[in-house]
Amino acid sequence: MLFGETIRISLASIRSNLFRALLTMLGIVIGVGAVITMVALGTGAQRQIDDQMAAMGGNILSIQSSAWFSRGVARNQQTLTTDDALALSTGMQHVTAVVPEINSRFQVKYGNRNLNVSVIGTTPNYPDVHRFNFAHGGMFTAADDAARKRVVVLGAELPGMLDADPAALIGRSIQVRSIKFEIIGVLEAKGGSGWRNPDDDIWIPLSTAQFRVTGDEFVQTISAQVADTSSTEMAMLEIERILRREHGVLPGKDNDFAIMDRRQFAQSRQEATEVFSYLLAGIAGVSLVVGGIGIMNIMLVTVTERTREIGVRKALGATRGNILLQFLVESTILCLLGGLIGLALGATVSALLAHYAGWQTVVTANSAFTAFGFSAAVGMVFGIWPAKRAASLDPIEALRHE
Description:
By secondary structure, the protein is α+β, with helices and mostly antiparallel strands. It has 14 helices and twelve strands.
């Protein structure tokens, strides 16, 4: 029997019991759709992490005061100062820029709006190091920092939170901890990094924060930008050497500061997201196996219903191979049709999640081909037993079947 004729007969058989065929394919449809959706969510999460790291600068080391433990509770020990930042910014081979930061939450008032936001005291090179762009206005200068001027830069979401037009805010006054500041810039949207959202922060000069707002001589964080021609490991060793010297840490003693590479956090998040997406895809893949079992059951019923037809075809000269091929092709077609519908379902659900839930989803060709190929394999594997049963029927007994 020609292969094309086998496909034609299989399609005719499916059309004759269309509703039952749709119910049979349901497990495959749900399985493929679930796999596509889960993988799309995992891939989207990984790509979002990559985009965030690229936007925030992946070659930045974060230096913080180390923690000490008292009665089993970790407590921060303030050890970093502006002098440390100055020492790191002079004469280093593997670091191109140093940005000290003070971060505190204060009440911010504009008109009848009252917000509690993060206020960051820092230096003028903060936007360049952390890759921020300005939508309106600009950054305060080194002269503003030295003069302890009361000027402020707003994150991208602050104008909306203050119910004000971003461009119209430039030159206006805003109160930070009841101190009047002049708005000189509004940043472009950056997007959250998972643990914080810089778009709802505000920035003031470091000296202004220390002497007018917080009254704290210590800095909480120092960001160090690694040179493009240097490795992160070399930069960390250089920073450690300088800070141990500045803090007078004796040989053999532990550091009173911690150096962290933000790429390690991103890598850990990516690995966790990848494992989680594979786990979800594996759970969704179980429904493909369940769908395959359903197809095998229906195909066994079909063999029983068409026993007389099989006997007639064998009496007319059809071989065991022809019968085996026909039922195997029919099972595979059911799974392939279910796989196509499942692909459409998965892509649609992914698009809906991205549109309404705001999740980043990415449907890749690799995941589509894998899910579709797996559905075809399910059809062939679970169609073998019914096909062999049909092919092994005795033609005389089959013709006697009522």
